[in-house]
Structure formats: structure tokens, C-alpha cells
Write a structure and sequence with these properties.
alpha+beta, rod-shaped, five-stranded antiparallel sheet
């Protein structure tokens, strides 16, 4: 899980108005799926990391680049991202005011409010598929936040906060190795089962018997002509 908390301090002196605390939790991810950001901060053994962004005011923006990599040998994972409903407080609903753009491997996969809901997508109900990560795969996930400069000190007369949780979920994919089909103990591999063998044997036997009868008839006729 990736937990993002935005809090806006009152604009009493028009100084720092935002404080962003980002917490990533990886309990739902296997240890082989590594997540790190553009500042070199990676998920720790306890599954958390923190990022602080200070001195942010309306009209400014934030940027994070996450690197996701599968380091497990010969085990692919299917990865998805889901955003939980935001918890907000204060005058301004930051889940709607803060705009977010998600870019995955150079392609914009979501653009709209930080809540994860726009006109065509609902990442709260329908997780975003990040595809399958084969062993050694490394991909870039970019996150951009922005707050319009239209907001004024009236919007920050009290502390506004937003807390929303991102959940990355991984499903282990089946091995691509060919199945033995349960015939590993059979000396003849994929030959037909017993009943099929009997039927095949009977057909072959009848064909051989017919061929033998034809040969006898031809031999008898040949002998009669000689006489």
C-alpha cells in the first residue's frame, strides 16, 4: 500500500501551506517486487517509506517517479493499483482540488482529481492494471500532482487535509513450463489408455487377419493354375 497524506496549514503569513507525507506499505506485495522513488528512497524491510514536501502553495506542483521491479527468478507477477476513498477534512476537499496525472512507461493512464475518479475512470472501484512483470522486468510509474493557483487564503483559513491509500496487489502467474500431464510414471509416455489400446489392437488384428486370408486365396489360385 502507498499512503499519501496532504495537509494544508492556514495561510496566515503566506509561507509554507502544504505538507505532504507519503507512506508506502508493501505488506501485500512479495518481497521480490521492489519499489523505489526518484530520490533514492526505497521500501524498507518494514514495508514503509516517507517523503516530505514543504513550502508548497497554490499554483505549485509535485512530482514522483517510482521504479517497480520484479527480482524473483522465473516467477512472473500480475500487478494492479487501486486507490481507496480519500479521508478529507477542512474547508477545501483536497481529493477534488488536487489534480493528479499518472504516467506508466511513457503513457498517461489516468488524469483527473487525486481521488482517482474522473469522467471515464474510477480507480476506487476498478483497479488499474499494470500488466505482468516477468523476472527482471523494471518499469517506471510517474506521479504528478498540482493545485490550481485560483485558490486563495480563504480556502486555507483552517487546516485542510486529505489522506488516501494506494494498494498495489500482485498475483503470481502460472509457470510457463510445459505440463507433464501426470504421465511421468508411465513408461510409454502419452500412448492411449488401456481401453483404447485394446480397441486399436483388435482393429490391427482384424486387418492382419484379412490380409492373411487374401494371401491364402491368391496362393491357392496360383497353385490351381499350375496344375
Amino acid at each position: 500500500m502507498r499512503k499519501i497524506i496532504f495537509s494544508c496549514l492556514p495561510l496566515l503569513f503566506l509561507t509554507s501551506c502544504f505538507f505532504m507525507l507519503s507512506t508506502a506499505r508493501a505488506q501485500e506485495l512479495p518481497s521480490s517486487l521492489l519499489i523505489g522513488d526518484n530520490e533514492g528512497i526505497k521500501v524498507q524491510n518494514n514495508g514503509e517509506y516517507f517523503v516530505n514536501v514543504t513550502d508548497v502553495m497554490p499554483g505549485k506542483s509535485w512530482y514522483k517517479k517510482l521504479t517497480i521491479q520484479n527480482t524473483e527468478k522465473d516467477v512472473p507477477y500480475s500487478l494492479t493499483l487501486q486507490i481507496s476513498p480519500a479521508k478529507v477534512s477542512g474547508i477545501l476537499d483536497l481529493s477534488k482540488a488536487i489534480q493528479m496525472k499518472l504516467t506508466y512507461e511513457g503513457e498517461v493512464v489516468y488524469e483527473g482529481p487525486a481521488s482517482g475518479i474522473n469522467d471515464t475512470q474510477n480507480l476506487q472501484q476498478n483497479p488499474l492494471s499494470l500488466g505482468t512483470f516477468a523476472s527482471g522486468d523494471k518499469r517506471i510509474f510517474e506521479v504528478e500532482y498540482s493545485l490550481s493557483e485560483k485558490y486563495t487564503s480563504k480556502d486555507f483559513e483552517v487546516k485542510n487535509t486529505m489522506e488516501n491509500v494506494w494498494t498495489f496487489s500482485a498475483i503470481k502467474k502460472k509457470s510457463s513450463l510445459p505440463s507433464t500431464g501426470g504421465n511421468t510414471n508411465k513408461p510409454f509416455g502419452n500412448l492411449p489408455m488401456t481401453n483404447e489400446q485394446l480397441k486399436s489392437g483388435m482393429v490391427i488384428g482384424l486387418l492382419l487377419l484379412g490380409l492373411w486370408a487374401i494371401l491364402l486365396i491368391l496362393r491357392k489360385r496360383t497353385q490351381q493354375r499350375k496344375v
